[in-house]
Fold Thioredoxin domain-containing protein.
Amino acid sequence: MPLISTPYPQVMNGLFGPDARQPVFLVFYSAVIPATGQMWCPDCRDVEATVKETFDRADKPKAIIVWLEREDWRRPDNEARIKWNVQNIPTILRLEDGKETGRLVESAILDATRLKSFVGGN
């Protein structure tokens, strides 16, 4: 299944191996609050159905979901901000051969034409 949920520290190990299909997408998302069963970030909730439709089937591009806890996200030194320059969530990065070749942030993910082009690499 192309949609992979993983804790952030383990994400980097799966991106650059010989079996990695190209491109690979990193989806930086809010974690789910157990008490409510919803993501803490309203913008992430807004794009959830679109992200699932885009990545959640065997014939879709490979995506790695990076779940961010609210407390971690608020830290200015969190790894998403430092390593990937993610300043807003949701953010989707397109990586090819380990290098960023594109990014969509927040409401741009909901633009169907833009998302299709982004995923297709055009």
User: Anything to note?
Assistant: Residues 25 and 67 are 14 Å apart (CA to CA). The helical segments are 8-11, 42-55, 70-74, 79-84, 112-120. The radius of gyration is 14 Å.
